[in-house]
Write a structure and sequence with these properties.
Elements (H helix, E strand, L loop, with lengths): L1 E2 L3 H11 L10 E2 L2 H11 L3 E5 L7 H8 L12 E6 L4 H9 L4 E4 L3 H13 L4 E2 L1 H12 L17 H11 L4 H8 L3 H14 L5 H10 L25
Parallel strand pairs: 1-2, 1-3, 3-4, 4-5, 5-6
Helix pairs in contact: 2-3, 3-4, 7-9, 7-10, 8-9
């Protein structure tokens, strides 16, 4: 689904996506409020979301659509933020709201399709111009700077669960088996954890899980869950 307050931009973005194998544009919206209602109606896999719109902006719309209360936490709607501007605070707010990626409109002509595919597959996508800024921020961050327990409030219940299992050393495949969800969905949740908490990688996420007491020293990983076979009774 494509969301932008400019009808010409919406049309251009849709044209870039139409005809691509495996991609269908199921709808459009002109503002944040309409994006929320249309996403609730259409349940798209990916929303290409303009960040600056009158009324409810793209960040607030992203916060609603990416929340557990809106979509299935095991099959969340992924949000790719698209904007003409590169503002560090706005990037951070969008990612903390639950966006899975951030792409500058100037790069949409060549990068929109691969960005949509990557976000749809459960990975994150951040424009290289934005990556450079984030790397500079990480490089200047003190080694002992870690999220606090209060900062975990930005995570959804499922994201906290994924972070906890990462802290226990489980791989994405093992987490998927533990939670009975797809591995791509695990990657989506974990990518959002990294973005929301400003973490660089799995090792920092593990440290954060202990630092915030999400995992206490000595805690053991939960026992592996085994899906029960369903008994099917035929009707005669």
């Amino acid at each position: 689904m494509v969301v932008d307050d400019d009808p010409l931009v919406r049309s251009s973005l849709s044209l870039l996506l139409l005809g691509e194998p495996g991609i269908a544009v199921v709808g459009e919206a002109e503002d944040g409020d309409r994006a929320i209602s249309r996403a609730d109606e259409l349940r798209p896999d990916v929303v290409v979301m303009d960040i600056s719109m009158p009324g409810t902006d793209g960040i607030e719309a992203t916060r609603v659509i990416a929340s557990d209360g809106f979509s299935d936490p095991d099959d969340p709607v992924k949000i790719l933020i698209l904007t003409t501007i590169q503002i560090d605070d706005m990037v951070r707010r969008a990612l903390q709201a639950g966006a899975s990626g951030f792409l500058l409109k100037s790069a949409a002509g060549t990068q929109l399709v691969p960005a949509v595919r990557q976000v749809g597959a459960g990975d994150a996508w951040i424009d290289q111009a934005v990556v450079k800024q984030l790397i500079r921020e990480f490089a200047g961050r003190p080694e002992d700077a870690a999220p606090t327990s209060a900062e975990l409030d930005v995570l959804t219940a499922r994201e906290r669960e994924v972070l906890k299992l990462v802290g226990h050393g489980l791989s994405n495949t093992q987490i998927a088996e533990q939670l009975f969800i797809g591995e791509a969905t695990v990657k989506t949740h974990f990518g959002r954890v990294l973005m929301k908490l400003d973490l660089r990688d799995r090792s920092q996420a593990t440290a954060a899980a202990f630092h915030t007491r999400l995992i206490a020293p000595g805690d053991r990983p939960p026992p592996r869950r085994v899906a029960r076979a369903r008994t099917v009774h035929s009707l005669r």
